[in-house]
Amino acid sequence: MIKKCIGDPASIIPLDGLGVEESISYEEVPVEILDRQDKRLRKKEITSVKILWRYHVVEGAIWEAGPI
Q1: Which residues of 34-53 are buried (b: 16+ CB within 10 A; e: fewer)?
Q2: Overall pTM surpassing 0.70 (yes/no)
Q3: Is 33 within 8 Å of 47 (Cβ atoms)?
Q4: Fewer C-beta within 10 Å: the chain N or C terminus?
């Protein structure tokens, strides 16, 4: 059963004081190579590695192409 939500105006946070600094950044640093695969094309072989990046979970590891 869905019930109607009656909001409390005292619990609303004003957005005027909130802001995002433009200079905020962080560096992506590889932590570990989880897997490696080689794909054979007609006359080329392409290597892909699955890299775990710092501040990411293992499920978020991505495949990167490159000679490693």
Answers
A1: eeeeeeeeeeeeeebbebbe
A2: no
A3: no
A4: N
